[in-house]
Amino acid sequence: METLKSMFRSNIRQYGMVIALITIMMFFQIVTNGVLLQPLNITNVILQNSYILVLAVGMLLVIITGNVDLSVGSVAAFVGSVSAVLMVTHKMPFIPAVIISLLIGGLIGAWQGFWIAYVKIPAFIVTLAGMLIFRGLTMVTLKGMSLSPFPVAFQKISSGFIPNFLGGSGFHTTTVLVGILFSVVYVLFELRNRNTQIKYNFDVIPMPFLIAKMVAVTAAINAFMYFLAAYKGVPNVLILLFILIVIYTFVTSKTVAGRHIYALGGNEKAAKLSGVKTQKVMFWVYVNMGVLAALSGLVFAARLNAATPKAGVNFELDAIAACYIGGASASGGIGTVMGAIIGGLVMGVMNNGMSIVGLGIDWQYAIKGLVLLLAVAFDVYTKSKNA
Amino acid sequence: MSAFILEMQNITKTFPGVKALDNVNLQVKEGEIHALVGENGAGKSTLMKVLSGVYPHGTYTGNILFQGSVCSFKDIKQSESLGIVIIHQELALIPYLSIAENIFLGNEQAKNGIINWNDTITHTRELLKKVGLVESPNTLITNIGVGKQQLVEIAKALSKKVKLLILDEPTAALNENDSENLLKLLLELKKEGISSILISHKLNEVSKVADTITILRDGKTIETLDMEKDQITEDRIIKGMVGRDLVHRFPKREPKIGDLIFEVRDWTVYHPQHENRKVIDNVNLNIRRGEIVGIAGLMGAGRTELAMSIFGKSYGTRISGRLYKDGKEVQFGSINKAIDGGLAYVTEDRKNYGLILIDDVKRNTTIANLDKITQRFVVNENQEILDAEDYRKKLNIKASSILQKTVNLSGGNQQKVVLSKWIYSEPDILILDEPTRGIDVGAKYEIYTIIHQLAAEGKGILLISSELPEILGMCDRIYVMSEGKITGELSGQEASQEKIMKYVINQQQEVQ
User: Fold this and answer.
1) Are residues B377 and A256, on separate chains, in Cβ contact within 8 Å?
2) Which of B241, B296, B354, B430 is the most exposed place for a label (fewest CB within 10 A)?
3) Strand B164-168 to B84-87 pairing
């Protein structure tokens, strides 16, 4: 019982977020008369928020270092416009075009990382400049107009679904199968984890609790997959997001690179004196952000099936808000990928729910602002109580 | 004998789970310097916070009598209005405001919200003269040293018509000269009838200026000693503080000194901003296996700069000179190379340069040597827990668990975490920069024991310290540094405070 309590206490912020997300979903499920959790709408929520979630993953790393990146919306728009020039104007096939676009994102990240990490210009200023520079370049590239249409293969990134090998009309059986496979992998993973912990003679969660946890998670996975299967199946972009989440959760929590990012954000001077190459870490965090901003720009362009000069406006604010709602600390050193994703989903579900209810965009802004403020206030409050 | 200016009677203050103060009594006589000593966590700061109103009346039990009348302060403003002023260890001055602005901050010489600058400057001049500080009132705080800043704090206290001045570790960050000046100033103020309470770990200072000493231990008043009557020695005070006879403040050790392990030759370093200023001037020194080598000197002598420039060039520009390890020349161009080469540097500033305070004990322990528990980029977190737990036990770190955040540990335990980080990096040579600063006697003893163990394992230790007794008690050989140069070398046996000070001062006279 003690271990359970301490486990809960050390993860209260994470659990709190999940509970908040579920509460918000329940609330909108009721006020929208069940529209929110309809298969079509669930798919929509994923598609609508995919590009913000991609940004949030990169932004989380930036925020852990104690900085922000205000330029990501403009960078996404710029890369989207370049990809349109490549694919629409020059008819380049979509795979080389995507690779070139991501490389451009990386170069932009390197450009900003250079000023921030090596010249020591505050990130706020560098990325504020970047926000203007790349917005301007977007307009130059597009000559102020929209470019479309993209090749169909490219559009599939955002609007496609995984193929249904197994057939079955009206119901996407492959999706259900993916869910089951996924559950099995998850259970095996939990058990393996427990076994290593036993091998190291650590206290482990008592088996009944573990089973309860596994049942709950498996049920959630399969219910979710069932909902998706009832519409068109798993969207391609969800696979992309899943891969990103797995990779970045792994990098931040299990690798030396991840440790170094947290150490840099926690205390740059101490990290440096402990042998962390702080400038190099900072530089690569921004390169990474550039690549993910490019990816986000591509996803958005594919979803819109057009590159427009106004693409990506305010994306940076949504991504930053997602990280803070998800428990990242503005002074750096604290935050998780899962938290940022959940934070992004909280915003996404609220957007979606409020739109279904018919609330105007005016009130949506005001309410989202309040939620951001309250989430962070809750954070500060619990921290001051623990200290 | 004069009457009491302050009487604190049966003060009890509890925090959730802890009794921080337990029936504490403190009586300060009119016009005396009253020292308050005790180990870290004995309750000195809590007692002063009760007195000054940081913990308002009602959150504690007991009575405070100031000049004979009962006081119930709700906040600091009220206690200050009666003339009780506390100067904290961390100075509360604003760096980019001038001396005058700082002195009258919150107490501006103003009419209807408009500041009268002529009055401000005139009054500041008077106050600076009183505390013996020769600086223009318009000088910015950031441009004067810590010693002078301390004087500004006292001037600020005087501006509030102080009757009882409380100084919390005023000399912790000062060099010998500045400390001396400060203590003299306290004696001056005493002549003018200002009483003071001096909280200090430096017992030599306490016995120099204090009239009365009150010793706290574990939140209780242990005793009050009259310096004149009782002929108090430092050992007597320590006995009261730790509750046992500490015959030896330094653990015993049989040095086993081996071959040369590390050598620095012709080491010269220039200031990172003022590129023509030599900070380290042609330093030569060496360390043998199992040897504890001390570097004595005043603050600002360049000891930290020397250590950091050796440690992967983390300080200074235009660094020249050679480093030899085990007789072979080595290049430590970056901190990583220095760590890989078997060098460790334990910083003097553990909060800013030593620890990641928001991280737990475990992560702080392993950060400098994650490679040890990493296979193919992946940190083995289970092994990490075992290793961190191992070090926690070995170094006797008092934390609720290795998952406790280091920000919540006491100074001594924080220092032990920094030490365990560097021991975990498996170095051959450790540079320890003021390893016991701001740490109580008991924890100091434990850290000395750890240092002895490291030396016994055949590591070379370079110990930088401003406390001469520590240098004398710990080191096999001592270098004296002054103005960026090594001005003397003494063996442990022949060294004495006088000899060391002679090397320090000779050099300074030469310069003048």
Assistant:
1) yes
2) B241
3) parallel
